[in-house]
Amino acid sequence: MKKFYIIIGNFGSGKTELALNMAFADAAEGLRVTLVDYDVINPYFRSTERRTELEAAGVRLISPNFTTSGVEVPSIPAEIYSVFSDNSDVVIFDVGGDPVGAIALGMFNRYFKEIEQLEVWYVINMRRPLSSGVSENLEMIDKITGVSRLAVTGLINNTNLAHETKLEDITAGLEVTNEVAQKTGLPIVATLGTPEVLNEFAAYAAEHGIGEDKTGRLIPIERYMHRDWGRYTDKGL
To answer: Which of 196, 177, 191 is nearest to 219 (CA)?
Structure first.
């Protein structure tokens, strides 16, 4: 049965990193994956920048019209409606940050209501100014769910400072994410991090008796959206 994932959260939370990692991982398992770049707000750090790599991996990518062309117009292609009837095994929506970006989801409400396997994951990176505390994240969840008319089904701790991320960042995010979970009743789906830092966190969690109910699955990710000369030389921005 087809599975739908909607990844939401504030600017800089790491939604796109999660969406890309999910798409590549599922495609590597032989699943038919469609990734919808549904960010109609922010023209920077979007999944469409990895079009070449996604298509090489067998991932179908749907993007707003004119994306990465130098003309930024928030125009949604009619092709997006096909995800509700095509033969994809997995459909991932990478949604623009904040309620303004999420409001565009409302146009598909009647389709989402018919989907049996739908996950809406809210990504927390408490190292970003607008999501640094519990109250800010609770307010953001309330606003995003209000305009999108979709209920969040799980939380993701993706607290990071890009290549400067340390164990202390993930543990700080753990505290905030768990308090948000307690106040909302939502489960923590996963804790994300690059393999090196996540291994440190796994050892920390084991030492302190922190179970999966507090961390979710520990999922190592590759950071595709960072800017570095090596990637720029080989693949472009």
So the answer is: 191
